[in-house]
Input
Amino acid sequence: MVDVFEALADFTRARILYALIKQPLCVRDLAILTGISESGVSHQLRFLRDRRLVKSRREGNVIYYKMDDHHVAALFREADYHVDHVRQGFPDHPYP
Output
């Protein structure tokens, strides 16, 4: 659990994962979407791959990355819900 939250705690890695929720992308496309250099994206992808949050597949000379753990997408949805909830000033839900 700590590895997942460590990965999500970094803004760049969170942006990469958020982009990969929608579709597989190559390093170049991720660099464009995130505004990070291709080498920076590659470094973060290696970190995410080591924690089995993303996986890769080769198509010719291009390597595409996609989510390897779909629970992360659920965490993003829950975090989005939480932020929206806080912004609107709704009271907290009682813990079941």
Summary: Residues 71-87 form the longest helix (17 residues). The mean pLDDT is 91. DSSP finds five helices and three strands in the chain.
